[in-house]
Each structure stands twice: as C-alpha cells, then as structure tokens.
Amino acid sequence: MTLSTRLVTISLVSSCILLHGCQSVKRTLGMERDAPDEFAVEPCSQPLDMPPDFFVLPVPRPGALPPQEIKAMQIKRDKLIGVGATKGTSSPGQKALLDLVGTEEGQGQVRSQIDEESRIESLNGNPLLKTLGIKQQKGDAVNPVEEAASLQEKGIARSSPVEAN
Model's pTM, two decimal places? Predict the structure, then answer.
C-alpha cells in the first residue's frame, strides 16, 4: 500500500468514527429514529360506536360527514337552541317580546306595501343611483367622428384633431 492510499483510508475511518457521535448525521443516515410522541396525539371528539350488528353496517356515502360528527353537531345545536326546540316554535317569553315590539301587526299587508314602495321608486327614477352619483345614460351614444366633423363645420372645434399619445 502506498502512502497516499493509507492516508485516505485512515482519514475515512477516523471521520466515520468522529461522525458516529453526531446526532444529526445519525438521523440523516437513518441510524437513529425519532420515537413517536404520545402527548402529540389529539383525542377524538366523539368515541367510536359499536354497530348493533356487524352484518348490517351503514353504507358509506362519499362526501358525507361521519356519524360521530353528525352527533357532535346535533349536541352543539341542542346546547345552542335548547333541547326540544324546533323551528317555528318560540317560548312564552319570546312570544311576549315579539308582541311587545309589534312584529305581528300588519303582516298581511307586507306584500302590498312592498309593491307600492317599488312602484313609487320606479316613478322617482332611482334615488339610490343619484345619491351615489351614478348617472344613467340617456339617449343615443355619440359617434365621435361625426361629432368632430359637425363641430368643425360650425367652427367650434380645431381644424386638425389632436393626436393622443
């Protein structure tokens, strides 16, 4: 063996021995694995349910929520609205508050009142557009070439049009 090959061999062996103690090199080369962290696992929001019969399992539907999530949403809805509350029913306190405000008065005339207001709105033009400063286009659009020619005949416009850069 020549001196250069001995030097290369000794340097490779010594570098391997020295790098063996380095944690990042061990992890990079796959000599050391990261152990799983048991505290990083998040618990499930709902426990798993045992089906009543393994031969009668629910048919999976693509895109549908899992049954555990549906139950969780129902529990949250019941907490928010109140257990047994259905759509269209209100408590005696809610009914008293609505009567006090007067929400039930004139409910039969709502459609005719809206129609009358929209008719008045159409007669007045559109005040919302006027308030916002939006002008509605009235009449025909002006042809710029013909308009420039007519202004030149009257002597109002310049004889040569200004070119826009």
Answer: 0.22
